[in-house]
């Protein structure tokens, strides 16, 4: 491997330390404790793991965590009523509805019911519009974490060619907006993109958010490029024993790490930064709600 490893796990730990220090000051000086409410509908095992880990890390940095677990057949009106109560609750500064929701629930209706000021996932239509127009908003956690790692590695991103593979509302599109905001020349690639390998080969920065295991091979990567692998894919790992599995990204780490200048691993790259940014967004929401200085 010749690429520098971008250690998202270690970076996320420093972000959480800063969040914890800010939370401690908010409590001591202003008597305010930031609170994050997480709503989980149904019993999807992966979502349950995420929610548990978010709750634990929220408490670890000194914030209040409010978990709301609702049955899989919860009527939409009940979920909207809970969101209304959380919107009104002055102890709750951030609200996160764990996605995906069961099929009978209208995801955009639910997300847009959240008070935009408490929308720490940054998915509310108002926050999407604010981000697109370069105004103060809540920024989606996964792309924000990617941007922080890129800024940390490069310093300025100005003028760099960036290719984002994936155009989802939660990763690809906001990632492209953020890179544009940092003056990259941005290409968004997707399943209809022609000559994808050649498009990717132009990039100084590659952000892969495709959802396909090891999709981007090393020979698509320009030598020295920075590769941010958002993908989380579980694949069979017979080498670990029968029925075992392991997590891999959307980038073929083995071949890409021989060519790239820097690369994030999976696990231990984007994932931990996503949760750290969620905590940071909750502190930001709390500071804005109380008219206090936001963390830098
Ligand atoms: P989506 O399925 O919503 O989007 C995937 C995107 O990849 C789509 O835009 C799709 O294009 C594009 N795509 C699919 N196949 C191809 C192809 N053959 N060539 C080019 N583009 C293709 O996924 P998400 O954005 O929600 O997530 C992407 C990955 O990131 C997943 O692995 C997910 O688990 C992971 N993830 C990780 C997070 C973290 O914290 N680390 C957080 C969120 C997601 P089209 O639009 O044309 O269909």
TrEMBL record:
Its EC number is 1.5.1.5, 3.5.4.9. Residues 140-288 form the Tetrahydrofolate dehydrogenase/cyclohydrolase NAD(P)-binding domain. Residues 6-121 form the Tetrahydrofolate dehydrogenase/cyclohydrolase catalytic domain. It holds the Pfam family THF_DHG_CYH_C. Pathway: One-carbon metabolism; tetrahydrofolate interconversion. Gene3D superfamilies: Leucine Dehydrogenase, chain A, domain 1, NAD(P)-binding Rossmann-like Domain. NADP(+) binds at residues 166-168, 232. The keyword Ion transport does not apply. Keywords: Amino-acid biosynthesis, Histidine biosynthesis, Hydrolase, Methionine biosynthesis, Multifunctional enzyme, NADP, One-carbon metabolism, Oxidoreductase, Purine biosynthesis. It catalyses: (6R)-5,10-methylene-5,6,7,8-tetrahydrofolate + NADP(+) = (6R)-5,10-methenyltetrahydrofolate + NADPH; (6R)-5,10-methenyltetrahydrofolate + H2O = (6R)-10-formyltetrahydrofolate + H(+). InterPro entries: Aminoacid_DH-like_N_sf, NAD(P)-bd_dom_sf, THF_DH/CycHdrlase, THF_DH/CycHdrlase_cat_dom, THF_DH/CycHdrlase_CS, THF_DH/CycHdrlase_NAD-bd_dom. PANTHER family: C-1-TETRAHYDROFOLATE SYNTHASE, CYTOPLASMIC, C-1-TETRAHYDROFOLATE SYNTHASE, CYTOPLASMIC-RELATED. Catalyzes the oxidation of 5,10-methylenetetrahydrofolate to 5,10-methenyltetrahydrofolate and then the hydrolysis of 5,10-methenyltetrahydrofolate to 10-formyltetrahydrofolate. Homodimer. Belongs to the tetrahydrofolate dehydrogenase/cyclohydrolase family. This is Bifunctional protein FolD. The lineage of its organism: Bacteria, Pseudomonadati, Pseudomonadota, Alphaproteobacteria, Rhodobacterales. The gene is folD.
């Amino acid at each position: 491997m010749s690429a520098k490893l971008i250690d998202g796990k270690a970076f996320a730990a420093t972000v959480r330390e800063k969040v914890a220090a800010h939370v401690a000051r908010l409590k001591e000086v202003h008597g305010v404790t930031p609170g994050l409410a997480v709503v989980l509908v149904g019993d999807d095992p992966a979502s349950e793991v995420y929610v548990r880990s978010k709750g634990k890390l929220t408490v670890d940095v000194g914030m209040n965590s409010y978990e709301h677990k609702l049955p899989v057949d919860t009527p939409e009106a009940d979920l909207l009523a809970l969101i209304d109560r959380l919107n009104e609750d002055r102890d709750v500064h951030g609200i996160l509805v764990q996605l995906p929701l069961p099929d009978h629930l209208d995801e955009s209706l639910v997300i847009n019911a959240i008070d935009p000021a408490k929308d720490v996932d940054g998915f509310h239509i108002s926050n999407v519009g604010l981000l697109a127009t370069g105004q103060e908003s809540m920024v989606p956690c996964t792309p924000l974490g990617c941007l922080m790692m890129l800024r940390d590695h490069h310093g300025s991103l100005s003028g760099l060619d960036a290719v984002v593979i994936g155009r989802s509302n939660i990763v690809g599109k906001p990632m492209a907006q953020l890179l544009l905001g940092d003056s990259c020349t941005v290409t968004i690639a997707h399943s209809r993109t022609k000559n994808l390998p050649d498009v990717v080969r132009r990039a100084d920065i590659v952000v892969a958010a495709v959802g396909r295991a090891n999709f981007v091979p090393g020979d698509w990567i320009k030598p020295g490029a920075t590769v941010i692998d958002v993908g989380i894919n579980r694949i069979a790992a017979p080498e670990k024993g029968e029925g075992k599995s392991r997590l891999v990204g959307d980038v073929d780490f083995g071949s890409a790490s021989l060519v790239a200048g820097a690369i994030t691993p999976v696990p231990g790259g984007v994932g931990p930064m996503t949760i750290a940014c969620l905590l940071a967004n909750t502190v930001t929401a709390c500071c804005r709600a109380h008219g206090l200085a936001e963390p830098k």
